[in-house]
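FORM 7B: Structural annotation worksheet

SECTION A. Query
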Amino acid sequence: MVGASLQVAAEAEGWVLRVATLVVATRGDAALGESLRALGSGAFTQEVDDAVQRGDADVAVHSLKDAPPSAPHGLVLAACLAREDVRDAVVLAAGHACLGDLPAGSKVGTSSMRRRAQLLSSYPSLEVVPLRGSVQARVAALEAGELSATVVALAGLKRLGQKHIAGQVLGTHDMLPAACQGTIGVMCREGDTRTRRLLACVCHMPTLLEVTAERACLRALMGTASVMPPVAVAALATARLHHGGDDGTGGRPATDTAATDGATAAAAAAAAPPTPAAVVAEAEAAEAEAQAQAAASTAGAEPCPSPSSHLDLEFDCLIASPDGRFLHRRTGSCRCDVSGSSGGGTEEEQQLAAAGALGERYGRALAEAARAQPEPT
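SECTION B. Predicted structure
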């Protein structure tokens, strides 16, 4: 898919491009008996990225949710394909229609701490057991009666042509997906200007903006590891670009609400009028916008009274304990005006800087709120 798109882009530039695929085995593929936490960050990507760093390959193609939130030294996330469905899906054993139908003690297989935390928060009577391997291996475990259900990315099922085996699709309000879920990302060497030029031609900018915000949020949340026990984290951004100036909202942040103890942010917002915490959250969103504006205007850039475009970013992020007893979630939205003014980088660079600043701000705010939340009794 990526190779074919690059060939089309090269032809448009008048270049002749030959594409070859280098298959690289990763430690995540080889050590199926190990937990993902034991394998560490980059279990499915490091060896592929190493090949690009050595010059054995020019680009690394990743399922971006498997990649660490920071690009390896010397590499850059240069492009993303249009994002697939971000939701998770449940594959169930025969005789069951949904997770709510499963009797107490039923086993659900997943090695994802994020899925484990949210499953146990919503369905504390279920038993979540470690499970890794291909979709076929997971289905075999269901057919053998070892499990009652397993949770997988819907995007993966679609790409494999197996969407039909999903017995239940979980909305993002029920199961917040992993950062960058449903996204194919392409890394290349930072100084490889020719490859970066080609990749820019095939990049889906709204997706790149979303994952830039999500990866920044994830970096901020993962920074809690030194002061908190192991946690499950998730982030989902929705980016919308508007060209031709403001549409009348005045550039003010929209909503920013927080929910704890497994309740969704939407339910918390609907349950009561604005509280002091909500006022603080709105102030945080305003500060996030200000920081993003500053990030989008590098040294020497002049303010633009009539921006050529603006970026609307909706955000949803979560931090939780693996047992689901501690869960804190935050949602919000914000607008950043960006322009292609000289000295401040291209319009796309300013948009990416703004998205990254917003994601980092939401991640830090959520981590601080989570640290202040009392431990469950």
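SECTION C. Observations
Residues 245-286, 295-307 have pLDDT under 50 and may be disordered. The two ends are 50 Å apart (CA to CA).

SECTION D. Sign-off
Analyst initials: ____
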